[in-house]
Amino acid sequence: MIEARGLYVRTGKKILLEDISFTLEEGRIYALLGRNGSGKTTLMKALCGSFRQSFSQILYDGRPLSSFSRKERESLHAILPQNPPSADMTVSSLLSLYEGGREILKGFRPFLDEERRLSSLSGGERQLVFLAFLLSRECRLYCLDEAQSNLDARSSQTAVSAMKSLKKDGKTVLASFHDIHSALEIADTLLLLDEGRLVFSGSREELLETDLIGKIFGLERRILTDETGRSVNIFLHRAQT
Amino acid sequence: MRKHDFLPVSVSFITLAAIVLSLVCGSTSVDLTAIFDMSAPDGIIFFSIRVPRTSACLLAGLAFSLSGYLLQSATGNDLASPNIIGVNAGAGAAVLLFLCLAPELFWLLPVAAFVGAMSAVGLVSGITVLTRRLDSSSSLILAGVAVNALFNALISTLGSLFPDTMSSYSSFSAGGFSNIDSASLYVPAAIIITCIAVTLMLSRTMTIIRLDDEIASSCGMNPMAVRTMLSVLAALSASAAVTFSGLLGFVGLVTPHLASFLWPEEGKTKLVITLLCGSSLVLLADVLSRVAIRPAELPAGVFLAVIGVPFFIFLLLRRKS
Fold it and tell me: Residue ranges per domain, chain B?
């Protein structure tokens, strides 16, 4: 069990996250939603050890992050940044750093040219390579910061399959989404951030009972029925409705 | 076996050939069959001049290439190298200051050089962090220009105040290996070899820190601490070499790129290739400096600059494109 207890992050005078508390359980996918600048990336970075000031507010099985050694922290969390770095190194140099996730990685082989340098890859290709790198690590928590934002439809499906595989393996997945529909489809639990505060934590159904998506994103919900009779939630900008 | 797998062996052979060339070539050619006769000139020249000089070249090549490799990893900037960001000038100014004020304590020279080199690293890091652009090449290079200017001003001031000590300044400034004394190599050699051993152990950490701070933190690291440690190792190895080679430039800039071109994979092999390239380059530059206008000598740094300057311009152009 991974816990944030009164998580608070600030840089200089600016408060990025304020009094955030939640629990993440194993074998579940959590979607992190919020407008740009609401603190999604900061929250993921905090959970993955980027802010030493918040180490005592993040607990793995009741133990604060500060009590883990460097080696132990390496097997706690992994992150896929929103803009993966374009360092001057080859794909194979990156993927040879860790040995895990070999089964999941097989699905990525057709997309990866291991001889190429990261700096020569497009944004989408680099995102896929770093997703493969994330999966090569054996951790408890996997944070994916808008993993699908630069991916085409086929690669995006690969990313979704990867999240589901991690869930099946009993891992905890926390992913931020640009697209609310994907979040509602994939996630077991949704966390909604607004101006650095957690305003909602619960299931898809619970979220849809509220008007939070409308209030925060300015979207209006429509329910359509497909040819099989299944109801599908569609969110449209108010101007479009 | 992949097409690149023979490369480490080839580079090792080139280094070995450069060592042999350095031992036999010079203002006087040495006959290798006569070197063990210590009463003959060849024996004396070989053991008291050529062996210390070749060792010095080898060590300087290792030290400056290691320093460049470490600085480029620590800053994530492929233009970082000990002479560009002022590490050499800082170490050189401290060495000259020490020689002017306390020449009898010459065995403490590596400590003085390290203090000077670390001052340069501290100043450059301070300026770039203040401008919040540590990974920006222009910010780093401009900070390096400022720090270089500061230490060169100090060197010039020392030149005016202590003209006797500064008589050999021009050769020190260009970098070279004439009049190398074996005793002056022991402490720097121990420092350089220790730095290489530590860096080899940090090879995986360096690959991760080259990515970005976010990923490095998620791998359990404290990125600032790792970058500081790499910078200290870089300053330590370059300053150790400055004490006997002078301000030898461009080795630290050129060799990591050369190694990256020859061996694209990150890790220990690439580090070893960088070190071998550095040693070969300095050894060959020194041989050229000895034979170009025989029996007179040019500083080895002149030949390194001839290779390094066009390469630096090439790098700048490549970044622009």
Answer: 7-320
